[in-house]
Amino acid sequence: MLKGVVIFTAAASLGAYMVFTGKLPLPGGPAQMQQPAIAVAAAPDAAQAMPASVAVALSREITEWSEFSGRLRAAEDVQIRPRVSGTVDAVHFSEGDLVKQGQTLFTIDTRPYKALYDQAAAALKGAEARAELTRSDLDRAEKLLAEKAVSQREFDEKKNAWLEADAAVAAGKAAVDLAALDLEYAEVRAPIDGRVGRPDITVGNTVQAGQGVLTTLQSIDPVYADFEMDERAYLRVLKAVRGDGRGGDMPVLMALADETELTREGRIRSFDNQLSGDSGTLRVRAEFKNVDGLLTPGLFARIRLGSPEKSAAVLVNDKAINTDQTRRFVYALDDTGTVGYRPVTLGKLTEDGLRVITEGLAAGDKIVVNGLMRIQPGMKIQPMMVPMETLQSPEAPPQEQPQQPPQQ
Question: Under the phi-then-psi rule, with left for phi > 0, alpha for psi from -120 to 50, and beta for the rest, what region is 361?
Fold first, then answer.
């Protein structure tokens, strides 16, 4: 009983000593007894810095791209209408045919116009004969006037008759030309090279001059792509065009709805003369070659417009970007390894998958790229540097396998 009381009293005294002095009496001498007990717990605190993958924001010369949606348009789009009235005798094409300029598309009954042409030609011959007779009378009257054999009045009448006959000849020639033109218009021909649509008028129907559409004809090569450009992109393009005169060098790429790569190259054709007050956009037209004939008017097109010169940009991988409601941010490291909240403004995505940062980040800044859900602002981390392009963590060294004790 007495022995237990002594042990309890000694233990209580030792605890009180440790509380008031912060020293732990250990066997081995007074020097060890003077060592602070808190130093034993300091090592685990220093080891609590969490490792995290960190990459450096890149700086690269890039072409600034803007992407738009548009529709293809034919460079030339013609509505074929009859220029004379009559009955359609023949249709010389099928829907979708490629036709050449001057090729006959429709034939309207030519017989009335052939008769009118012959009539005009006959009237012209009569006028020419009348003019020849009056010219002979005028020549004789001119000789007789010199001999004072006719009066001045008779000479003037002969001259006036010849002038009227000569005018009739000119009118007859005009009538013949007009009849020949109507006869020519009875053969409806293609005014341009292109692809013809369906015939809206078939054989046996009667058409009126200038009324109704016989068919449509659209050119094939080149084609236009019309799209709407926002005000900011328009100002950038306008400065490039007017600043150094290199607007023709501005890259314009296009892809159709079923194409993932924008491989078709073109050029800016024209800008509209004003911005739309409702949408704040400007209509732009680009021109593309259509050698394979695949580009059909009316198709949807994705259009990418670039700058004629490259500019420096800050690039990061999208995996390093986090979202805070409507804002985008990254976790950036300072010189002490402390994580900071950094709002950023995003730009376009480059062809190699990196995101352009227009505001909030500078080239060379270190940002956390993996394990973002475990990171908090103000936290200190142990950075593990990885390349920004791939975000691959460094390979961990192979762990040594514990040796198995020899079997007995």
Answer: beta
First CA to last CA distance, the chain:
50
Mean of the pLDDT values across residues 86-102? 91
Can you tell me the distance from the alpha carbon of 183 to that of 186, in angstroms, rounded to the nearest whole number?
Answer: 5
Q: What is the CATH number of domain 52-62+311-385?
A: 2.40.420.20
How far is C-alpha 139 from the chain's CA centre? 77
Cβ–Cβ under 8 Å, residues 57 and 316: yes
Cα-based distances in Å from 236 to 116, 287, 351, 355, 359: 63, 20, 21, 20, 18
On the question of a cis peptide bond just before residue 25, with omega within 30 degrees of 0, the verdict is no
The angle formed by the CA atoms of residues 198, 204 and 209, to the nearest 5 degrees, is: 75
Answer whether 54's CB lies under 8 Å from 46's CB.
Answer: no
Please, which residues bridge with residue 86 across strands? 207
pLDDT tens, position by position, 276-328:
777 788 888 889 998 888 888 889 999 887 765 667 788 888 888 888 878 88
CATH code assigned to 66-74+219-306: 2.40.30.170
Per CATH, the architecture of 81-217 is what?
Beta Barrel (2.40)
239 phi, psi to nearest 5 deg: -65, -40
> How far, in whole angstroms, is CA 217 from its chain's centroid?
26
Burial group, residue 229, by CB count within 10 angstroms (0-12, 13-18, 19+): buried
Tens of pLDDT, residue by residue over 126-174, are: 888 888 888 888 888 888 878 777 788 888 888 888 888 889 889 999 9
Length of the chain: 408
- Token reading at 339: 């994580």
CA distances for 281 relative to 33, 71, 143, 310, angstroms: 82, 16, 81, 25
Domain boundaries, the chain: 2-46, 52-62+311-385, 66-74+219-306, 81-217
CA atoms within 13 A on the CB side of 246: 11
In this prediction, residue 248 has a pLDDT band, given cuts at 50, 70 and 90, of low
Strand order in the sheet with 187-189: 187-189, 104-108, 86-91, 206-207
Residue 354 and residue 363 in contact, taking contact as beta carbons nearer than 8 Å: no
- Cα–Cα dist 142/181, whole Å: 40
